[in-house]
Amino acid sequence: QVQLVESGGGLVQAGGSLRLSCAASGRTFNTYPMGWFRQAPGKEREFVAAISRSGDATYYAGSVKGRFTISRDNAKNTVYLQMNSLKPGDTAVYYCAAKTLLGDTNYYIREEQYNAWGQGTQVTVSS
Known about the structure:
By secondary structure, the protein is mostly beta strands. The chain has strands at about 5, 10-15, 20-25, 35-40, 45-50, 60, 70-75, 80-85, 90-100, 115, 120-125. The strands form 2 sheets. Strands 2, 4, 5, 6, 9, 10 and 11 form a 7-stranded mixed sheet that branches. Strands 1-3-8-7 form a 4-stranded antiparallel sheet, with no helix packed on it.
């Protein structure tokens, strides 16, 4: 089973930026569609962004589109989430996820479609 480790979270003021990283174990990272999700206190986990195996296709939740960018470096087994113009409403634990089982689409946006998860990294945006 692939292991995922997120990093890059922290405390930032509204309007600031952070870049999250998610490092994956194994030799087949380039075969996994990847995604980022987040969970705010008292709320359910929600989709943020997804990226295809090669990185040529991406998809974003409406709440982050235009502010966040998902990317990946398959040579480094890493997926990134660049977050700009952060708002207090972006405060959450951010999780990366991998779909290691076979699928027939470029990317996935539902939580149940992913079968490997990281432990999460806290992002706090102050007003």
